[in-house]
Design brief:
The complex is a heterodimer of chains A (526) and B (369). Chain A is 32% helix and 25% strand. Chain A contains 17 helices and 22 strands. In chain A, the strands form five sheets. In chain A, strands 6-7-8-3-9-10 form a six-stranded mixed β-sheet, sandwiched between helices. In chain A, strands 16-19-20-13-21-22 form a six-stranded mixed β-sheet, sandwiched between helices. Chain A has a four-stranded antiparallel β-sheet with strand order 2-1-4-5, covered by helices on one side. In chain A, helix 15 links the parallel strand 19 and strand 20. The longest helix of chain A is centred in the first third of the chain and has 18 residues. With 369 residues, chain B is an all-alpha fold. Chain B has one domain: ABC transporter involved in vitamin B12 uptake, BtuC. Classes of the chains: A alpha/beta (526), B mainly alpha (369). Chains A and B meet through helix 10, helix 11 and strand 18 of A and helix 9 and helix 10 of B.
């Protein structure tokens, strides 16, 4: 994965005392009508890295939540080091040496690293002796696992990658023998991913068990020893990583032949439709979150913006779509120049033929509580064709939605079903359908495949390439480097609020983009 | 349109009918226990209440008269609710609305009522709207929460009215702070007179033409919220303000308009009370209807089709409670308030208590577990 070369598991670890570190046997769990886990049996070997893959809703998180004590299984057994155990809460799990690093960190931002590690282990009314003891223990752990963390820094001052190390250290400090990591690379830059993987290998070498939940098949191939595939709550395949490949895993995840490649012809770029020149965004705290951003997007090309989440991409998307005011600089939308004071909001943007698929689907792009038909007119409710005068004609809205659902293969095809009850992929297809239906001249797309299943990803990519081929300008922002590389004709890389470089599709390699994402402007591989 | 299934996919009649009925029955059982505890016959007392509220044309008239006021204040709560706002200021907005109605009626002289009505509706709506829009503005642009500001505006309205009635609008040469009476020509027709005109005898009650205004308001509010582009914008802001901004809707504008509309509806209570019944301006005429409207809206699921029956139920409690005090010397005014309070508690505050049980009942049991 990303400039990382990891040789999976020449086992040099000490011989374990038990055959399995953790066994989940016949785990079954229902939430009302939803059968989240169906008779799942998984065994994690000591001193190994075990990958767990599956699409959204395949039951990975439920399974790990059962192991960590958030939920109780309806039936089945959990065995830790050969002993059957009952895990009634996370305290039980920690007591049994099971640790978890959540996708969203559970750290107190205003505490120092050491204070965070100490939380729940104060061991008396006075803090000082506990702090001194903890410092000694933690330093020993840091040496053992090669996990360097500044113990006295405030968590809020640390980069995400380091915060994640704090989480891992916290689990180890609590005696974790089995460490579960839920999508740990989602927020990391490629160099940080490489560092994380070195830590995970060290953990394996020290005889610990790592369970890695991820949807990135490259990472599975790069670091795991074994991999289990979940689909619709059941384990559908298990492999020794050395004996499988990405295609086989993807096929197992979706249950049919999965299409991993995007087919596209070279771009035929036309005139510039969208441009930004020296745009700055200053947030409420006075911090400049987008610095001097300049870019152009031409008709008939896809411009990708790569970067670790939170490096100004959201602000860029916000400014271009009219959601976020900018402090200085100019925008040029289809030849018309806008300055910081010009009236420009999402409604203006739509009138000018600029459509926007936002990064955060549930926060911005749909209203969960609304029936699909009402989410399908969000942003277009003022359109004449949808009613008469003040009135909205629900018959026409429903008919329109049914048509969109047909064209973009949204399932189930039920305009009256509540938006929240569609899967992420189908919600996204509905949003894409709504925004692409008007054949906008400019389309801004943020994280088009976040939380979307593999089948829908291929469909969405095909639609984007299709729109490009019809001569439209597309700006694509994605945290998935693979997606950026597969779709883009030009790639901009952002770091710390700045566009640090631009590469053509031909020049772009993961290594070059990766080091630019980490702030090395030239993009020389490290 | 969106009156369909709830978040847990209960059928509409389970949330809209079954749940409120269960809550009311439970409230009546608790009330019965209280009546039993003071040594009275609960069934007899209940019967007296029902009989008093519905059994005579006079009782029915009073019940519907109370319901009219409650429909206005509950619709006010509902409109704000769909915009994601909790308007607790119905009482103050109704008070100010009444002032607007009264000023119109005092100004028009002996104009006939059917010409005055549109003006008094406008006057009540405008004053109520102003009293709602100010907290709306403060929420939208200054970040002051409407729950806090509308409560404060109730007090301001009350003080303002005392000042105006005592110092400005009082009829010269009298002690009680009341304005001069309106001209007889302006009085809204009473329903008993309208019934008499078509040959139906009704005993006297304050029920007046405002009832029809209230029912018309229900239809308009329903059409507005679920069938106009404005209503769609309102519901979008209420459900997800960020999505509204993304959709090019300005939440600030929507919040102010929603609060103004809400205040306007509450202000129409003044048409019923001042233009329809009192025929002069006086103090304390909203009499808590602004607050009870919140419970009515909650029980009626913020939908006009639910608000009408809920308003009638609360009207029955008001009217039946009065009868109860007459017939049972040991039951005091306070006990009636207790019964009303218990209904508000179960139907309003605890409205979702039985929801999980209903969900379990309606979720098909998976086979083989």
């Amino acid at each position: 994965m990303h400039a990382v070369t990891v040789t999976p598991a020449p086992h040099s670890a000490p011989k374990p005392a038990h055959e399995w570190a953790v066994e989940l046997v016949g785990i079954d769990k229902r939430f009302g009508p939803v059968h989240a886990n169906k008779d799942v049996t998984l065994r994690f070997a000591p001193a190994s890295i075990h990958g767990l893959v599956g699409e959204n809703g395949a039951g990975k998180s439920t399974l790990m939540s059962i192991l960590y004590g958030f939920y109780q299984a309806d039936s089945g057994q959990i065995l830790v080091r050969g002993q059957e155990v009952a895990i009634k809460g996370s305290q039980d799990a920690i007591g049994l040496g099971i640790g978890m690093v959540h996708q969203h960190f559970m750290l107190v931002e205003t505490f120092t690293v050491l204070e965070n590690l100490l939380l729940g282990h104060e061991g008396g009314p006075l803090l000082a002796p506990a702090v001194a003891r903890a410092r000694k223990d933690v330093q020993a752990l840091e040496r053992t696992f090669g996990l360097e963390v500044p113990l006295d820094a405030l968590v809020s001052d640390l980069p995400v990658g380091v915060q994640q190390r704090v989480e891992i250290l916290k689990a180890l400090y609590r005696g974790a023998d089995v460490l579960i990591l839920d999508e740990p690379t989602a927020v990391l830059s490629p160099p940080e991913v490489a560092q994380l993987f070195r830590i995970l290998e060290r953990l394996r070498a020290e005889g610990r068990t790592v369970v890695l939940i991820t949807h990135k098949l490259k990472e599975i191939m790069a670091i795991t020893d074994h991999v289990s595939v979940l689909r619709r709550g059941a384990v559908v395949a298990e492999f020794a990583t050395a004996e499988t490949n990405r295609q086989q895993l993807a096929d197992a995840m979706v249950g049919r032949k999965a299409n991993l490649e995007v087919e596209k012809a070279p771009a035929a770029a036309g005139p510039v439709l969208l441009a930004a020149e020296g745009v700055n965004v200053v947030d409420a705290r006075g911090v400049t979150t987008l610095k001097n951003a300049s870019l152009t997007v031409r008709a008939g090309e896809i411009v990708g913006v790569a970067g670790v989440a939170g490096n100004g991409q959201s602000e860029l998307l916000g400014v271009l779509s009219g959601m976020l005011p900018f402090a200085s600089g100019t925008l040029t939308v289809k030849g018309e120049m806008l300055t910081a004071g010009s009236p420009y909001d999402p409604a203006d943007a739509r009138r000018r033929g600029l459509a926007h698929v936002p990064e955060d689907r549930l926060k911005l792009a749909v209203v969960k509580e609304f029936p699909a038909a009402q989410s399908a007119i969000l942003g277009y409710h003022a359109e004449k064709a949808l009613g008469r005068g003040w009135r909205l004609d629900w018959k026409r809205v429903t008919a329109k939605t049914a048509e969109l659902m047909e064209r973009f293969d949204v399932r189930p095809r039920d305009p009256s079903l509540r938006t929240a009850l569609f899967s992420g992929g189908n919600q996204q297809k509905l949003v894409m359908a709504r925004e692409m239906e008007k054949e906008p001249d400019i389309l801004l797309v943020g994280q088009p495949t976040r939380g979307v299943d593999i089948g829908a990803i291929a469909f969405i990519h095909k639609q984007l390439v299709g729109l490009r081929d019809r001569g439209k300008a597309i700006l694509l922002i994605s945290a998935e480097l693979d997606e950026i590389m597969a779709l883009s004709d030009r790639i901009l890389v952002m770091c710390d609020g700045e566009i640090v470089g631009e590469l053509s599709a031909a020049e772009a390699t993961e290594g070059r983009i990766g080091s630019m994402m980490a702030g090395v402007a030239s993009g020389e591989e490290q | 349109m969106s009156a369909g299934t709830g978040p847990d996919n209960l059928p509409w009649w389970a949330t809209g009918v079954l749940l409120p009925v269960i809550n009311v029955v439970l409230a009546l059982i608790v009330s019965a226990i209280v009546i039993l505890a003071i040594g009275e016959d609960p069934l007899g007392a209940m019967w007296t209440m029902v009989q008093g509220a519905l059994g005579t044309s006079e009782g029915l008239g009073y019940t519907l008269y109370y319901a009219t006021s409650l429909i206005f204040t509950a619709l006010a709560v509902a409109v704000a609710f769909h915009g994601g706002l909790f308007n607790i200021g119905g009482e103050g907005q109704a008070y100010l609305g009444g002032l607007g109605v009264g000023l119109v009626c005092l100004a028009v002289g002996d104009m006939p009522w059917y010409l005055v009505l549109p003006l008094s509706v406008l006057g009540g709506a405008a004053f109520g709207a102003l009293w709602g829009a100010i907290p709306g503005y403060l929420q939208a642009y200054r970040g002051s929460h409407v729950v806090i500001t509308t409560i404060m505006f109730n007090f301001i309205a009350s003080s303002l009215m005392v000042y105006l009635m005592v110092n400005v609008l009082i009829r010269p040469g009298q002690m009680s702070p009341e304005s001069a009476q309106f001209d007889k020509a302006t009085f809204l027709p009473l329903v008993q007179d309208m019934a008499a005109a078509i040959g139906i005898q009704m005993n006297p009650s304050p029920l007046n033409f405002s009832l029809f205004l209230a029912l018309a308001a229900c239809v308009l509010v329903w059409a507005f919220i679920w069938h106009t582009r404005w209503g769609f914008a309102l519901r979008t802001v209420g459900a997800n303000e960020n999505a509204a901004r993304y959709a090019g809707i300005d939440p600030k504008k929507v919040i102010i308009i929603a609060m103004a509309l809400s205040g306007a509806l509450a202000g129409l209570l003044g048409v019923n009370e001042i233009h329809g019944v009192q025929h002069r301006l006086l103090l304390n005429f909203p009499a808590g209807m602004g607050f009870t409207g919140i419970a009515v809206a909650l029980m009626g699921r913020n939908h006009p089709a639910g608000i009408v029956p809920a308003a009638i139920l609360f009207g029955m409690l008001y009217q039946g409670g009065t009868e109860l005090i007459f017939d049972y010397p040991s039951i005091s005014r306070e006990l009636v308030v207790v019964i009303q309070g218990v209904v508000i508690l179960f139907a309003g505050a605890l409205e979702h208590m039985f929801r999980p049980a209903l969900v379990r009942l309606f979720t098909p049991k998976p086979a083989g577990v």
